UniProtKB/TrEMBL annotation:
<feature type="domain" description="Sugar 3,4-ketoisomerase QdtA cupin">
    <location>
        <begin position="4"/>
        <end position="131"/>
    </location>
</feature>
<dbReference type="InterPro" id="IPR011051">
    <property type="entry name" value="RmlC_Cupin_sf"/>
</dbReference>
<protein>
    <submittedName>
        <fullName>WxcM-like domain-containing protein</fullName>
    </submittedName>
</protein>
<dbReference type="InterPro" id="IPR014710">
    <property type="entry name" value="RmlC-like_jellyroll"/>
</dbReference>
<dbReference type="Pfam" id="PF05523">
    <property type="entry name" value="FdtA"/>
</dbReference>
<dbReference type="InterPro" id="IPR008894">
    <property type="entry name" value="QdtA_cupin_dom"/>
</dbReference>
Amino acid sequence: ARGEVQLINLPQVHDPRGDLTFVEGGNHIPFDIKRVYYLYNVPVDAERGGHAHRDLEQIVFALSGSFRLKIDDGRQKSEYWLRDPRKGLYISRLIWREMDSFSQGAVCMVLASHPYDEGDYYRDYDGFISALRDDV
Ligand code: TYD
């Protein structure tokens, strides 16, 4: 799929000792997980993202704290406030994303469909728009 975002709900095992959430490849995630990365120590006034990907699919979680995720498929813009560690936002290929308004101590975890590849990035918005046009 291209140009698609969708909220993914993970299971939660509630316990007086604390809550537990798990992710199973092949079950909760619509791609094979090839990489996990996380953002932390993010200053509250930082802006991250500002790019799209040719092939990469990702699911973004707020493991702790909260932040805003701005989504742009080239036609419509939307925004999501992630703050529940059970809920991730699936982001398909060819979606422009920006992140800001990180709370103090927020941790953002991302599951990704490919290893890191700078050649997969569109870091220029106009380049992203023309890639959308050229993608059949
Ligand atoms: P970038 O994807 O631009 O971060 P964000 O979208 O969160 O603002 O990556 C920032 C830097 O980190 C960039 O130099 C590439 C590097 N990086 C890796 O080396 N490996 C990775 O898995 C990721 C996500 C980034």
